[in-house]
Amino acid sequence: MKESIRKILEELGIAEHNTGWSTGATAGRPGNELESFSPVDGQLIAATGLAPRDAYDALVETAQSAFEHWRTVPAPKRGEIVRQLGDALREKKTSLGTLVSYEMGKSLQEGLGEVQEMIDICDFAVGLSRQLYGLTMHSERPQHRMYEQWHPLGVVGIISAFNFPVAVWSWNAALALVCGNVCVWKPSEKTPLTAIACQTILAGVLAQNGAPEGMSCLLIGGREAGTWLSGDRRVALVSATGSTGMGKAVAQAVGGRLGKVLLELGGNNAIIVSQHADLDMAVIGAVFGAVGTAGQRCTSTRRLIVHESVYGQFRDRLVQAYGQLRIGDPLDEQNHVGPLIDRAAVSAYEAAIEACKEQGGRFVVVGGVLQGADFASGCYVQPCIAEVENGFEIVQHETFAPILYLIKYRTLEEAIQLQNDVPQGLSSAIMTQNLREAELFLSASGSDCGIANVNIGTSGAEIGGAFGGEKDTGGGRESGSDAWKAYMRRQTNTINYSTTLPLAQGIRFNV
Ligand code: NAD
Fold first, then answer.
1. Is 264 noted as a catalytic residue in this protein?
2. Model ipTM?
């Protein structure tokens, strides 16, 4: 392992991970059943044990006892602990951001940005801890008062994907904690070390505050560990981020026991580039959206729907921009594009290119796997662009790689129909300076996605808004706005301070 990475692990207090990993609030065990290889250079960076079922059961019991205490702590005091988490993340931003970049493969800037997002959601959650408002209503009965209040749910299970290995956890955990819940986090098996780093940072904050064991638990494991959470009646809410296939399995398991789910699943995001677009802005938005994080964001731009009158010109500008892309080590800030997460992702990329060709796609920027000493992990690929029809089976599918599809349109109504005509409904955008076009795109007859932007690409989001999407994206909302309500249960209270017992709807009942 590189000396610089070893130093970062020391700064994060996790340099000993190779000798096994086990603390009271972490269900893993010494061992090396789960190995984490960096897609940057193919080096082994972590080897850890998988949590066995009995350790999982003990973990949830510890979490349940912690909840009994935590729900009695006033929400603003809970916010104070999340404030300290935000401060601890500020201190560790560079080391954690670098580890995210090294373990997951995104650029250093994006790794740092991911930690910044964690800090931002902590700040948001601190404010929220004084704003968990319920409504009051006027009762139809005299001398009665009606209001609602929001109570915590209990144990919140968090299942996360590899591509945002730390931010997704913080979106859930920061809100869940201020709402009075405790968390059990099952991170992606592809990025266990960044999860251990986060757990260590939060464990330090909790210990300093004398918080009980089990308020935030880490469950190291694969798909099976995720199924334990989904099937467990003790877990009140399962918040799952990942592929649509995973989300369907989780929804069925949690639905079968009538638990709560929050699903954040795959996207198939498009930008409409109108003849009224500022093409300079549109090129930057499209290229960043398509190749940022090597096309491995849920909000990555996968389709460009371009007006026929600017289509040729825009395609040529894209081809030119792709020619300037530097692909390589994401820790080197000169590079624009890093590796895919692993070789299985590379195979999926190659298979998608083949399928696209077979279905009639024409590549204007040709893809391929990069070879040579700088690409020794075997995970670096060339971002590519194909001209396609929206109806191709491969275009309807989310391939988690930098493959961009170009589609031509004539009228805005047709463009909106093409944009909506995929199973997923996460992020969408229109590039236009025409007010009528922008408003139609945002109207009820416009984009059917959870996120719809004007003159901003599809990729990325601020934490202040509710994040999530419709259809195969799962319907969940996380992060800002009133997404906190998913982590609480609503209770309606009616208080009678009169000396009689009038019934609602004027019903008479005499005994
Ligand atoms: P994945 O579905 O392979 O795995 C995600 C997580 O689910 C992992 O922790 C995995 O162990 C777990 N898991 C897998 N099968 C499970 C099951 N049957 N029951 C319970 N848990 C199970 O996804 P990935 O490859 O890690 O991530 C990429 C996918 O995530 C893409 O589809 C991307 O669009 C999506 N994603 C969505 C969002 C969003 O907010 N909408 C954010 C990030 C990623």
1. yes
2. 0.98
Neighbours of 339 (CB within 10 A): 29
> How high is the pLDDT of residue 21?
37
Give the chain's residues under pLDDT 70.
16-31
pLDDT tens readout for residues 348-367 = 999 999 999 999 999 999 99
For ligand 1, what atom is nearest to the CA of residue 245?
A: 2
How far away, in angstroms, is 247 Cα from ligand 1 center?
A: 7
478's tokens: 């996380």
Return all residues near 417 (Cβ < 8 A) that are at least 6 apart: none
Closest of 293, 95, 123, 102 to residue 198, by C-alpha:
95
Q: How far is CA 278 from CA 112, 303, 322, 353, 455, in A?
A: 29, 18, 19, 30, 8
Closest-lying ligand 1 atom to the alpha carbon of residue 469: 41
- Return the closest-CA partner of residue 243 out of 474, 476, 486: 474
Which helix (DSSP H) or strand (DSSP E) does residue 255 occupy?
A: helix 244-256
pTM of the model: 0.96
DSSP state string for 117-133: HHHHHHHHHHHHTT---
Distance CA 469, CA 455 (A): 19
Question: Taking Cα atoms as reference points, which of 279, 313, 284, 314 lies closest to residue 301?
Answer: 284
Q: Give the chain's domains with CATH numbers.
A: 3-265+474-491 (3.40.605.10), 269-464 (3.40.309.10)
Distances from the Cα of 267 to the Cα of 117, 143, 193, 395, 426, angstroms: 20, 51, 26, 12, 5
How much helix, strand and coil, in percent to the nearest 5, is found in the chain? 40, 20, 40
CA distance 246 to 298: 14
Half-sphere exposure of 371 (CA within 13 A, CB side): 1
Inter-residue contact 187 to 168 (CB < 8 Å): no
- Report the C-alpha gap between 381 and 340 in whole angstroms: 7
- At 188 the three-state DSSP class reads coil
Q: How far is the CA of 173 from the centre of ligand 1 (A)?
A: 17
Residues with CB under 6 A from ligand 1: 159-164, 186, 188-189, 222-223, 226-227, 230, 241-243, 246, 249-250, 264-267, 298, 398, 400, 426, 473
